[in-house]
Specification:
The complex is a heterodimer. Chain A has 4 helices and 10 strands, in the order βαββββαβββαββα. Chain A is α+β, with helices and mostly antiparallel strands. Chain A has one domain: Molybdopterin biosynthesis MoaE subunit (Aldehyde Oxidoreductase, domain 3). In chain A, a hairpin with a 2-residue loop joins strand 9 and strand 10. The longest helix of chain A has 18 residues. By secondary structure, chain B is an alpha+beta fold. Chain B has one domain: Beta-grasp domain (Ubiquitin-like (UB roll), Roll), CATH 3.10.20. Helix content of chain B is 28%, strand content 28%. Chain B has a 5-stranded mixed β-sheet with strand order 2-1-5-3-4. The longest helix of chain B has 9 residues. Chain B is globular. The termini of chain B are far apart. The chains are: A alpha+beta, B alpha+beta. At the A-B interface, strand 5, helix 2, helix 3 and strand 9 of A face helix 1 of B.
């Protein structure tokens, strides 16, 4: 079985990832995929580069548990998460969440659920370089609110 | 009993990757944090109660009230910012 979660420095290919997720499953009628990318501005400053740190072991375990939860909550067939770590630059891809299901509604919902969950529960930290130097990115209260829509109370931000 | 403390992101920059700590049996995450804060100014600044901090025990998110066992891995880090 292919891994459901990959934490890697290397870039990923959306087309290949989706093809692998759908492979041989003729019951799939919908694929929803979200790709997060590095912006060149954040909180009013230009961002020239970024470094992503994570907690090896816990990260994979936390995201795997999120996928289990998504499989319980939604009528989906498979899910895949790829998250990059290490040095990244504006326009780089950071994260992929892809979900397959029979119909689009469940795929859209599960994809958004996984992304909301990941934002507040997966141990990643971004440090960005701006003209004023390097700074750790602050967590957003709005991400906790996004997760609350799914009935999960988070207190990350 | 002995626990392994680990730090990440800004806490790691301030205190290093981690340290071993002897704690009383039945200790909670919050009590470990207090013992660390008592280690000195650098610890007090990085782990102080005015800072938003999250914790994990054996690589699962944990509340300050969580009780930890012998040899546990207890991690402290800032709110997460992935995605």
């Amino acid at each position: 079985m292919r891994p459901r979660v990959s934490i890697q420095q290397a870039d990923f290919d959306l087309t290949q990832e989706v093809a692998a997720l759908r492979d041989g499953d003729a019951g799939v009628g919908a694929v929803a995929a979200f790709v997060g990318t590095v912006r060149d501005r954040n909180d009013g400053s230009g961002v020239s580069s970024m470094e992503l740190e994570h907690y090896p072991g816990m990260t994979e375990r936390a995201i795997d548990a999120m996928i289990d939860e998504a499989l319980r909550r939604f009528d989906i067939r498979a899910a895949r998460v790829v998250h990059r770590v290490g040095p990244l630059a504006p326009t780089d891809q950071i994260v992929l969440v892809a979900v397959t299901s029979a119909h689009r509604g469940e795929a859209f919902k599960a994809c958004e659920f996984l992304m909301d969950y990941l934002k507040t529960q997966a141990p990643f930290w971004k440090k960005e370089t701006t003209p004023d130097g390097s700074r750790w990115v602050d967590a957003r209260i709005s991400d906790d609110e996004a997760l609350r829509r799914w009935g999960i109370v988070a207190s990350n931000g | 009993m002995r626990v392994n403390v680990r730090y990440f992101a800004s806490i790691r920059e301030a205190l290093g990757a981690g340290e071993a700590l002897d704690v009383p049996a039945g200790c909670t995450v919050g009590a470990v944090r207090d013992l660390l804060i008592a280690r000195g100014d650098r610890h007090a600044q990085a782990l102080g109660r005015t800072r938003a901090l999250r914790a994990a025990v054996d690589q699962c998110m944990a509340a300050e009230s969580a009780v930890i066992g012998e040899g546990a891995e207890v991690a402290f880090f800032p709110p997460v910012t992935g995605g």
